[in-house]
Amino acid sequence: MVGKIVLALLILVAGGVILWDRLRLRRTMGALDAMLERGIRGEFPEESFDESRLSALETKLAHYLSATAVTSEKLAEEKEKIKTLIGDLSHQIKTPVANLLLYAQLLGEQPLPEESRAYTVALESQAEKLQSLVEDLVKLSRLETGILTLHPRPAPLAPVLEDAVAQFATKAADKEITLGCIPTEERAVFDPKWTEEALCNLLDNAVKYTPAGGSIVVETEAYQLFCCVRVRDSGPGVPEEEQAKIFQRFYRAPAAHGVEGVGIGLYLVRQIAQGQGGYVKVDSQVGEGSAFSLFLPRGE
């Protein structure tokens, strides 16, 4: 009888010890969870911890979160410096480039010999390329550093597609390229300004590489999660081994030499697509044209 009572007491004590240990663990985990939540919000304070509650772990976590907060502050400061630097460079470079264009145009209005006039046209063309390159580099830098953020929102695609196509109508006509946009009522979640920027880069490439007499079509296709904006051309196509490389920054395919550009456009398209939860891909066969597809989320 006494043995049973002792056994029951031991079981009761063991149960109490286990229950107390679990409660202590729960309190400790609760404290750690609260510390992490405050750390995520950037509100973590230094505290004194009870030595009986895994204080060593809590202290290390406190020091880690404090160091992370300091690092975040330094990153914010560096980002602000980069933002200022990019703004200054943009302003300092744009002004002389704009002056070059102005002087080239004024020079072209003067009564010059035919040979000199050709040089003036070349000067103006190169200044325009330089201006375009500077603008692309500034956009790219701002996107990569997070200075510029995308603001996707639900909107119809038709206005963006029509505006982008209208910008390249003259350029396509000059090369005798048929440029069309299939009407659509599809909607997606995207940043209109930056999505138009991405689409213009795709159209610019299509016009550059499509030979005279070719065709370019902009169309849309809806899927369950994404809406696809596709730019289809009748250009020379992209070899399969290069299709993954053309979206890399500054990559220029061997066949692209002689065509203006520095390899930023498609990389910028990819950055814009990823920045709003989408992606970009290419389907192409040599000699049969290419189809660049920009996928945009249909929901938030």
What can you see in these coordinates?
The protein is of the alpha+beta class and 300 residues long. The protein contains seven helices and seven strands, in the order αααβααββαββαββ. Strands 2-4-5-7-6 form a five-stranded mixed beta sheet. Strands 1-3 form a two-stranded antiparallel sheet. α1 packs parallel to α2 (55-108) and α6 packs antiparallel against α7 (265-275). It is elongated, with a radius of gyration of 30 Å. The mean pLDDT is 79.
**Unreliable segments of 5+ consecutive residues:** none
* Portion of residues within helices: 55-70%
In total, the number of strands is 7
Structural class: alpha+beta
Number of helical stretches of at least 4 residues: 7
Question: Gap between N and C termini, in Å?
Answer: 69 Å
Order of strands in the sheet with most strands: 2-4-5-7-6
Topology as H/E string? Answer: HHHEHHEEHEEHEE
The major β-sheet equals: 5 strands, mixed
β-strand amount: 5-15%
Query: Overall pLDDT, averaged?
Result: 79
Principal-axes geometry comes out as elongated
C-alpha-based Rg, rounded: 30 Å
